[in-house]
Specification:
The chain has helices spanning 9-19, 26-37, 41-57, 92-99, 128-136, 151-164, 189-197, and strands spanning 59-60, 67-68, 82-89, 106-110, 142-145, 170-173, 200-201. It is an alpha/beta fold and 206 residues long. A 5-stranded mixed beta sheet has the order 4-3-5-6-7. Strands 1-2 form a two-stranded antiparallel ribbon.
């Protein structure tokens, strides 16, 4: 049977939904759907409800824009974290990567992307304004720019540096133990941890 010759319209619809996910092709999607069909109805119901509940109930932290179950995420609400140090990251996956190193005890700020004219993403599409407001409040002593070491990441670093350099804070960037062109989420924990610990003052040059 060819991959597109489905014996059931319902099966085809389910496969197409799975195949719409990043990195999932039609063959993998079919394998996943057939696996679910072998499970009992309660198991499949829990599986589906988990995503429905996630989509309906998930929040974004009003302080750092991280994904959260509450208005303020568990990191921002942790009194043992250093609220004067803020690590600026591209997305939530980068927070998970840095937290996995156990080398950082400050807070975060999720930009929601990086400046990329080719993709139509400008500074106004990111949470840079709320980051500047956070710094202007006087509560922050250091900003760590922990963006991917790509051209787009460097461009975003420079833009943020120009926005924040007028404030009396330290602006640092992760050490270049992370290779040029690497994305943070794919960097091993040891290298990433050392890059956070050995961060350097950002001078505004690439």
């Amino acid at each position: 049977m060819e991959i597109n010759s489905y014996p059931s319209v319902l099966l085809e619809k389910a496969v197409n939904e799975f195949a719409s996910l990043p990195g999932i092709g039609k063959k993998t999607a079919l394998r996943l759907v057939l696996h679910l069909l072998r499970q009992d109805k309660d198991t499949v119901k829990r599986f589906g409800n988990a995503f429905i509940e996630l989509r309906n109930e998930i929040k974004h932290c009003k302080n750092c824009h991280n994904i959260s179950d509450a208005d303020v995420c568990s990191i921002c609400s942790d009194s043992f974290r250093d609220a004067t140090t803020v690590c600026v990251v591209e997305n939530i996956k980068d927070i998970m990567a840095i937290e996995g190193t156990h080398q950082y005890n400050g807070q975060y700020h999720v930009l929601g992307g990086i400046i990329s004219p080719m993709d139509g993403i400008g500074p106004g599409d990111l949470t840079i304004t709320s980051l500047e407001e956070k710094v202007a409040s006087g509560a922050v002593k250091e900003i760590i720019l922990a963006l991917s070491t790509t051209m787009e990441g460097d461009t975003t670093n420079f833009f943020i540096y120009r926005k924040l350099s007028k404030h009396n804070i330290t602006i640092s960037t992760i050490a270049r133990g992370v290779s040029i062109g690497d994305e943070l989420e794919y960097t091993d924990e040891v290298t990433l941890g050392r890059s956070i610990k050995n961060r350097t003052v950002f001078t505004g040059s690439f």
